[in-house]
Amino acid sequence: MTNRTVPNAPWLAPSLVICALACAGCSDGGKEGQNRDASVSADSAPTESPARCLQGDGSQGTLEPCSCSFDCVSGFCHPEEETGQPGGSCEVLQCETNQECGDNHICRHIGGGITSCYERCVKNEDCSRATASCTSLGFCLNFCQYDSECSDGRVCDPYITLCVYPEDLLRDGLGSWAPCLRNEECLSQVCGSGRCFTNCSVERQGCPGNEVCVDLFDADLGWCFAPCHSDAECLEDNTKCLIPFGIASAGTVCAPPHFRL
């Protein structure tokens, strides 16, 4: 199988972030038990030419859009062209406390010895960016659902929910809820508990094909499912047409049998 070309910032992909954050966090108390990774720190921020910046005046706050590090108060930008995150994002990496992140932000450990700041939220309206979704873990994630949310000729890959160039779109892989052994087998690049899964925004409904985004955790960040009327319509191995976890608003979708209550 051909490996997919993905932007160089896997911690920005919602599926990967949720996998990491499900079992680890960074509280006001700091980084206990975590190794700081000097290779992913603000000290390693690139020295771009101001010509490619949005403003270049260092006025953009944490998680606000940016094109270069000169745009950001923190001095560190993850631009869309490198990370796939729509509009780019000013980052505070390797934070130790929530206070470092500023008001209404939280420091979280996201795996691999990396910590980063995220905007706190209880509901989607708490997220300051239109391309951000509130997760069940209480913070906002910035990701795309539609081509119009990307810039400079990039399009939104609905499986990895990041902005990529059209030639980097790959359709050689397993779809939502297909059985899997490794991340790279999945179009979403995420294999969890033996299944490929694709994250999405319930509000924006940007799943691939005719799939629908279902809220399973009372948050805007949901999972993509294929709608169905009978088991015969469910094409992935060992999936059934059911109401997931008894959530009537989801309707009937193709999902693993254990999703049936």
What does this structure look like?
With 261 residues, this protein is mainly beta. It is 6% helix and 19% strand. A hairpin with a 5-residue loop joins strand 3 (105-109) and strand 4 (115-119). The protein is globular. The model is unreliable at 1-6, 8-12 and 19-46 (pLDDT under 50).
The gist of it:
The chain is mainly beta.
Domain count: the total is 2
Can you count the beta strands? 15
Identify the overall geometry. Answer: globular
Assembly level: single chain
Question: Which structural traits does this protein have?
Answer:
five-stranded antiparallel beta sheet, mainly beta, two-stranded antiparallel sheet, 2 domains, globular, 3 helices, about 260 residues
Per-chain topology:
Blueprint: H1 14-21, E1 77-78, H2 80-83, E2 89-90, H3 98-101, E3 105-109, E4 115-119, E5 132-134, E6 140-142, E7 155-157, E8 162-164, E9 191-192, E10 195-196, E11 199-201, E12 212-214, E13 221-227, E14 240-242, E15 253-255
Antiparallel strand pairs: 1-2, 3-4, 5-6, 7-8, 9-10, 11-13, 12-13, 13-15, 14-15
